[in-house]
Amino acid sequence: MPQKMLLSEAFSIPADRPFRRIWRRDDPRTDVLIGLKPAQRIPEHSHPGSEVMLLMLQGKLQVTLSGEIIELSVGELLRASGDDQLALDNVGEIDAYVLVILQEHH
Predict the structure, then answer these.
(1) Within 10 A of 35 (CB to CB), how many other CB atoms are there?
(2) pLDDT in tens, 34-91
(3) Integer Cα distance of 65 and 46 in angstroms
(4) Pairwise CA distance, residues 39 & 89, whole Å
(5) What sign does the CA torsion over 30, 53, 97, 89 have?
(6) Are 54 and 87 within 8 A, CB to CB?
(7) Taking every annotated instance into account, which residue ranges of this chain make up the domain Cupin type-2 (predicted)?
(8) CA dist 102 to 2, 10, 84, Å?
(9) Which residue ranges form the domains of the chain, and what is each CATH number?
(10) pLDDT score of 75
């Protein structure tokens, strides 16, 4: 039987760290669901050799991309090179969920 629920009901975010779950791994693509509580952060990192797409599902994130700050809201998609330094900050008042799609270049 189908079951409908909120993201926050299906995937709770720990208070002490962001939530990460690999949604799909099918070489050369990996999809990762990430959840951040308000004020949680994923520090700068990169995904060399990949294209990175972030699809905002809930909440609002401040994305720092090689020093440039970009606000990402529900329904927005951000594409970037995985060679860029990337950091995520939940600047909203609710839990934020983003689907990260990593496409490796071959």
Answers:
(1) 23
(2) 999 999 999 999 999 999 999 999 999 999 999 999 999 999 999 999 999 999 999 9
(3) 10
(4) 7
(5) positive
(6) no
(7) 34-101
(8) 29, 23, 13
(9) 29-104 (2.60.120.10)
(10) 97
